[in-house]
Write a structure and sequence with these properties.
By secondary structure, the protein is an alpha+beta fold. The chain is about 70% helix and about 10% strand. The protein has three domains: about 5-120, no CATH class; about 150-355, no CATH class; about 365-415. The protein has 14 helices and seven strands. Strands 1, 2, 3, 4, 5, 6 and 7 form a seven-stranded antiparallel β-sheet that branches. The longest helix is centred in the last third of the chain and has 62 residues, at about 355-415.
Length: about 425
């Protein structure tokens, strides 16, 4: 039916399949942005599996869009109550439009449907969904590399290190394999034989790059003087962006390799496809955690340097702001990089503490201290004056008493004489 759409969801994305107008109506109703689903890949994944022929035909005939799920978009989809497959973790459901109204989609299919009824088909579809998510991530990294000044290819080729030079060759081989895949629709044994040994090269480059970022953080930590800290911060500003670009390229190529792997397993050992997909997901998450820890160390050290520089701005009115500026540039670059890879970030930057503001703060503290000093002195003076007056009064009373006694003694002697 023209007003029905098929929803297929995994942990990263949502496939929306059906009549083009109905699909677009659903996406508009939920405020979801999307990209082409490439129905040919779904048809290839479904293959000739039992019970999937009709589903494959529907997908081929319909319009397909893929939505990257964020926290917000995932909540919008949750309300439709898609049914999850325990073996694959994939959720499916069919929705029906309500008389052409944009805000009228309700859950429609109560039966299992051809996709849900066949675990092998769901495993194939889950693999394609994983590929779409990784290709989306690859596109975002391409956009990221285009926004920075240093082109990663130039950075790699400018390096004299042998391991980075090897990565240039691996990059060429993987890109060639991806091009063949787009034209043929699969990854043949011949294509796979060309790329299967490149994973080690990419992993080696990633480890090397992470160590370079760690070295920048360690160098910042060892500097105690503001002058040395300013020099180290300037170096970090110029080097960090380059190493982040190399690291982003590593991650992008690793995702490309995973896309090729899934196609190859689908073709050569489809019974292992779901386990292989789960393994790729775990390995990818581990890489993200490793990158998150390394970049967080750099951010922490740069923020600490900025705090230290801010505290000494009065003594170093020129170099302290330079440290803060370089630190903020590094931190902003790291957060941009982490955002493109889907890594959550915390504190972003330190505000430069200007000399005048610091001087005003010191002045205010001096005035406050001075006022307290004057008050204390005034209080002490009053107390001293009171004590002096008391002493004077007692002394005067004593003198007067002794004088009175002398007069009394003299009067007694005169009377006796």
């Amino acid at each position: 039916m023209d007003d029905e759409i098929q929803l297929i969801r995994d942990g990263d994305g949502l496939a929306v399949i059906g009549n083009q107008a109905t699909v677009e109506r659903f996406l508009v109703s939920e405020g979801l942005s999307s990209k082409d689903l490439e129905p040919r890949r779904f048809r290839s994944a479904l293959g000739n599996a039992a019970g999937a022929a009709q589903a494959g035909s529907d997908i081929a005939a319909g319009s397909g869009r893929w939505v990257k799920l964020t926290k917000e978009s995932a909540r919008r989809v949750d309300k439709y109550g898609l049914r999850e497959s325990s073996p694959t973790g994939l959720s499916t459901g069919v929705l029906k439009g309500d008389s052409g109204q944009i805000k009228g989609f309700v859950e429609f299919a109560k039966g299992p449907g051809p996709l849900r009824a066949n675990p092998a088909v769901l495993a194939n579809v889950a693999a394609v969904m994983a590929q779409l998510a990784m290709q989306q991530a690859m596109d975002e990294i391409t956009d990221y590399l285009a926004t920075i000044d240093e082109k990663v290819d130039d950075v790699l080729r400018a390096q004299e290190d042998a391991e980075l030079a090897k990565m240039v060759g691996a990059e060429f081989v993987i890109e060639e394999a991806m091009t063949i895949r787009e034209q043929v629709g699969r990854v043949s044994e011949i294509t796979w034989s060309k790329v299967q040994n490149t994973s080690e090269t990419i992993a080696t480059t990633q480890v090397y790059t992470l160590r370079r970022l760690d070295a920048l953080a360690e160098k910042m930590e060892r500097k105690a003087k503001i002058g040395e800290l300013a020099t180290a911060a300037e170096e970090a500003e110029s080097k960090a962006r380059q190493w982040l670009a190399v690291l982003a390229r590593c991650f992008q190529l690793q995702d490309a390799m995973a896309v090729l792997e899934l196609d190859r397993v689908l073709d050569a050992a489809p019974e292992e496809l779901d386990r292989h997909r789960n393994g790729i997901r775990i390995a990818r998450r581990n890489r993200l955690e490793l990158i998150a820890r390394s970049t967080e160390r750099l951010v922490t050290r740069m923020n600490a340097a900025a705090d230290e520089a801010n505290a000494k701005v009065l003594l170093h009115p020129t170099k302290s702001p330079a440290v803060v500026q370089s630190s903020n540039q590094v931190v902003a670059g790291v957060h941009d990089f982490r955002e493109r890879l889907g890594i959550e970030s915390g504190r972003q930057s330190s505000e430069t503490r200007r000399w005048a503001a610091a001087a005003a703060e010191v002045r205010d503290k001096a005035f406050e201290t001075g006022a307290k000093g004057v008050g204390a002195a005034r209080s002490l003076g009053n107390e001293t004056l009171d004590r002096a007056r008391s002493t004077t009064s007692r002394l005067s009373s004593g003198i007067a008493e002794r004088a009175r006694r002398r007069r009394g003694d003299e009067e007694e002697r005169d009377a006796e004489g």
